[in-house]
Input
Amino acid sequence: TYNNPKWEALCIRVNNRQVVLVPHEKYAEVTGSESEGVRFRGTPQSCRWAYLLRTPRLELPAGEYMLDLRVEICSGQLYGGILDIEKNEFVVQQELRSESTRLQFALAEDRLIDVVVRQGAEDTPVSAIYRYGELCVSAGLQEPLLGESAEKNLPVTKAVGSPEAPGTKSEANDTPSPQ
Output
């Protein structure tokens, strides 16, 4: 069900490809498209710290990264973060501000991660418009060599299948879809 037209703009750019941010079946509801964004909200079943939007698993090589999330918060409190799948803990997370929030983080070794947008500690109903997201190598930390573009120096990032759906992989320009 990734082909829902309401989700067309519900993507994050990861090294020059789009990866869908999937709304949680129980806790999040996509309520429509806005100009340059997607409106979503927590459902009545949502609770404090509930995962609302989440990417499929991504494999990132060791390095320093920047996650840029642009969300217009209409009500409630939202956090964005990078979840280390194998350790089941956040590498970084931060309360999102309306418009743009940047989170910088480093990975000492290759890691399997998810980008997560989740409800905060308050019980206030959450409503927001997702505008844009990008996960990339931190600017200035990896200088391109003379004659090379910075794009060529980016590490390869790939989506990999979740344990529930083995074999789900995407090619470099495809949007991942569940089995």
User: Anything to note?
Assistant: Residues 61 and 155 are 7 Å apart (CA to CA). The radius of gyration is 16 Å.
